[in-house]
Specification:
Blueprint lengths: L8 H23 L8 E5 L7 E4 L4 E5 L7 H16 L5 H7 L5 H14 L8
Parallel strand pairs: 1-3
Antiparallel strand pairs: 2-3
Helix pairs in contact: 1-2, 2-3, 2-4
Length: 126
């Protein structure tokens, strides 16, 4: 009898991060002309005051694990938002112009605000 091994937590995390990276590249192609090319995209458990974060200098994106329970279109919005930081680091007019290419931007922003309010947590920044 062959023993089947369950993936380790580290293996499952790596697979989830790989899937998140693939989705980010698809979203960059679809909504940002393929211009936003992150070095890494990964789920993190230590973000309590934001949904995601981006460090343009090293082209890394981190996404809060809280989003795993939310609809895919909300996760996609957060990814597009963070990818846009690779093109425009500040939350200025040019940045929001890139983000607005994602057609569900306003709906997703409303969902996230409603989720924060319903869960009695302060609305994450960024």
């Amino acid at each position: 009898m062959t023993e089947t091994r369950r993936p380790t937590r580290r293996g499952r995390q790596a697979a989830a991060d790989d899937a998140l990276m693939r989705r980010s590249l698809e979203l960059s192609d679809l909504y940002l002309g393929g211009l936003a090319q992150p070095e890494s995209v990964r789920w993190v458990s230590n973000q309590r005051s934001r949904w995601g974060s981006c460090t343009p200098g090293d082209r890394t994106i981190r996404v809060s694990e809280r989003l795993k329970r939310m609809p895919d279109w909300v996760v996609d919005y957060v990814l597009v938002h963070e990818l846009a930081h690779l093109l425009e680091p500040q939350h200025d007019e040019k940045f929001w112009a890139w983000v607005s290419h994602y057609p569900l931007t306003e709906k997703a922003k409303g969902y996230l605000m409603g989720w924060a309010d319903a869960n009695n947590v302060s609305r994450p920044v960024d």
